[in-house]
Amino acid sequence: MVPAGQFATPDRVVECATKARPEYHDIPSHEYRDKPDVLKAKIVLLAQLLRQAQKCVAYTGAGLSVTSGLADYATKAQESVDARQIVESRYLAQPNDGHKVLACLYKNGFVKRVFNQNHDGLLQKAGLPQSGVNEIHGAFFDPSNPGGFELRGDLVEDMFQWASQTDLCLALGTSLSGLNADRMARTPAKKYSLNRVVGDLGDNAKEAGALGLVIVNLQETQLDNLSTLRIYAELDEVMQLLAEELQLPEHATTPLSYPSEVPDLFAGLPYNAVGDLDLSNSATLDLRAGARIKVTHGNFAFCQGVVAGKNPEGHYLLKVRMEVGGGAHITEDLLLASWFILEAQAGAIPSLPIVQNK
Asked: Is 80 exceeded by the pLDDT of residue 104?
């Protein structure tokens, strides 16, 4: 392992004293980049860490989707903001090289699970299965996890379980501002730090296999001093170089929707009446326009609605009614990604986001 202090200091390429996330910390939003030779050496080390890891997770933030045309939260320098292309519809954004390589890392076993703070569905569009990602803060394409309210209990439980067993975390494009979900990065970082301390003391109390935290971000974060490896570079560049170093094969993306001739009536799904996985059961889900549905989990749990059609990518448009008290209600437009059906047919997800409302 090459100590972080042996690498040359990154260049500060953007000056911006404005606080990156003023609601959470006082870190300014200066931007840094590693020199080319340093970046290359760090990529070699990153590949070594991934080859050693047994339970590597990726913890992804808004920075991962910037080159797909979506804004982040921590970039404040106007020259950086002005240089970006912003997509017209966040629902129709397309995955970038970072998403594609991360999906490939998952497919080839280097990353075991992804904890994604973004709502955009771009990892799934890049081919990462829904069963491999925890969208802890919500999802545009999952009516049972719309975000904006309380975190879903089963996703929080899954997060705690994985944090306890993770030996290496790749924090990609996240400002690590101190949110609850940052435990995915903080916990393995502390395991590795403990190992260094007890190793210096000659103790036998090391946590076996702890490799720590790798942070890829242009800005400073609160966890930099806990990281095993700190990389200052554009995410797309890092992921492309990593794919080359690991000699990853080209990765074909998962189809986003069924062919138009499919009638949107899906039989033989191994789920029960409330949408939970049940291999002894065989459910039918009607997603034709006008079909009545009910949301199974999350902040819209038990709310009823109808299928209103499809969006241009073939995902299902839902109109869901929520009671707000005093006899009043609101109707929300929600999306159900067609990849949920692809995985439900194989029983790959623990529950359906919606069931039929009979």
From this structure: yes
